[in-house]
Design goal:
By secondary structure, the protein is α/β, with parallel strands linked by helices. About 30% of the residues lie in helices and about 15% in strands. The strands form 5 sheets. Strands 5-4-3-6-7 form a 5-stranded parallel β-sheet. The relative contact order is 0.13.
Length: about 475
């Protein structure tokens, strides 16, 4: 009998009941909550007269609507200028108080993006099933967890029952051989994978990332990679547990202690695919062939290496492809055949649940050190993923490097990842962004988003256009 994949192990250990139609009722260990997808769920509980099945399995963090400017932030919830945003954050506070849910509120030093706060607090642990009303819950799979986003009705279902009805997915392993070049990061790897398999390539699969390049990534890098599984069409991505995973979790607030830690760590070490496990599909990439990546269009799969050129209509083989390319070029204000390095930028955003951890800020600061943001850049902002990340960066002096270079140093939150708070792109503006989606209007109506790594974003801020971050060693800017 063949061995089990990591996904099989996690699924089997959480199935409460399998049904004749192929669906299964699975138990949920951790439910993360934010202000956007929870109001209707809590109201549904009220209308039905239901309480929470397991209060301590829930953790709430406002993030999407919170302001990242220090002046607004100082006022707490009342300092949020937009009335809809203020109402959503206040409603989360009220619901958590009414249902006795643990919340990390807006001015708590631990507050931040829910997918940063979960792992750094130890609320996310290996072997867990983790859900949140947010598609980028796949981030938590980096710790060897079965993690995925859910809809608002499912948020209510988990609050009331601590279970979900799910259909088991197929297994896809993405193996990355060798090691990434210096200057090529987990973000570049994620974009290269999406460029290879497309935004529908992982549909119906749980993706497991494996291979030397993945093993060599830090935990922050692994979270970046799993974060963008959803952009590859998969609801979840995961990486097997190893010493890095266990060392990362050790000592965190929600992590087990004493004898419980020893027992948990022993179990966690079994959370990897067996050597003889069979996958439904496998994709193999060579790490050494991956270069810094830049998206040029309106989908994450519209991505190319930094030394490439925007596709032309003549290169497309079908009318559908030509029509899609034409629309993307028109929206992005680009010309077929244009060099990626000729794309001029207006703003730079370093942050989001994809790239706002301490490693990301160190990467940006290393590029910015001793340099200045180009005069043509209207705004270059760095937004830490949590108050604890901000504290650590400031202790290391990274904020001073960034401020001296001309970057803004903001308060934690989702910020310009999406146009749901005060940080937005203007119509027609091009932005080098470390976020995860470059859809039309994602960062503001008419805004043009180019996804890159933190190092590439910092280099673009200095040059005013896209450049290969690897050339900085030779001071070729």
């Amino acid at each position: 009998m063949a061995g089990k994949t990591l996904y099989d192990k996690l699924w089997d250990s959480h199935v409460v009941e399998m049904r004749d139609d192929g669906t299964g009722l699975i138990y949920i260990d951790r439910h993360l909550i934010h202000e956007v997808t929870s109001p209707q769920a809590f109201e549904g509980l009220r209308l039905a007269g239901r309480g929470l099945w397991r209060r301590d399995a829930n953790l709430a963090v406002p993030d999407h609507n919170v302001p990242t400017g220090s002046q607004e932030r100082a006022g707490g919830v009342s300092g949020i200028l937009d009335p809809v945003s203020r109402l959503q954050v206040q409603t989360l506070d009220d619901n958590c108080a009414s249902f006795d849910v643990v919340e990390i509120p807006i001015n708590d030093v631990r507050q931040g993006i829910v997918h940063v706060v979960g792992p750094e607090s130890g609320a996310t642990l290996p072997g867990m099933t983790v859900v949140c009303g947010d598609s980028h819950t796949s981030t938590h799979g980096a710790l060897g967890a079965l993690a995925h986003g859910i809809g608002t009705s499912e948020v209510e279902h988990v609050l009331a029952t601590q279970c979900l009805i799910q259909r088991k997915m197929k297994n896809l392993r993405v193996r990355v051989n060798g090691r990434l070049q210096v200057g090529v990061t987990a973000k570049d790897l994620a974009l290269a994978i999406i460029g290879r398999i497309g935004t529908a390539g992982g549909t119906g699969y749980a993706i497991e990332f494996a291979g030397e390049a993945v093993e060599h990534l830090s935990m922050e890098g692994r979270m970046t990679l799993c974060n963008m599984s959803i952009e590859a069409g998969a609801r979840m991505g995961m990486i097997g547990v190893d010493d890095k995973t266990i060392n990362y979790v050790a000592g965190r607030d929600y992590a087990p202690k004493g004898a419980l830690w020893d027992a948990a760590a022993a179990y966690w070490r079994t959370l990897h695919s067996d050597a003889d496990a069979v996958f439904d599909r496998e994709v193999v990439l060579e790490a050494a062939e991956i270069k810094p990546q830049v998206t040029w269009g309106t989908s994450p799969e519209m991505v190319l290496p930094i030394d490439a050129y925007v596709p032309t209509l003549a290169e497309q083989s079908t009318e559908v492809e030509r029509s899609s390319l034409k629309r993307a070029l028109e929206y992005m204000g680009l010309t077929g055949g244009q060099a990626i390095t000729d794309i001029q930028l207006d703003r730079v955003f370093i942050g989001s649940c994809t790239n706002s951890r301490i490693e990301d800020i160190r990467e940006a600061a290393a590029v910015a050190k001793g340099r200045k943001v180009a005069g043509s850049i209207k705004q270059a902002m760095v937004v830490p993923g949590s108050g604890l990340v901000k504290q650590q960066a400031e202790q290391e002096g990274l904020h001073t490097i960034l401020l001296e270079a001309g970057f803004e140093w903001r308060e934690p939150g989702c910020s310009m990842c999406l146009a749901m708070n005060a940080d937005k792109l203007g119509h027609g503006e091009h932005c080098a962004s470390t976020s995860n989606r470059n859809f039309e209007g994602r960062q503001g109506i008419g805004g043009r988003t180019h996804l890159v790594s933190p190092g590439m974003a910092a280099a673009a801020a200095i040059a005013g256009r896209f450049v290969d971050v690897r050339t900085l060693a030779g001071d070729t800017l």
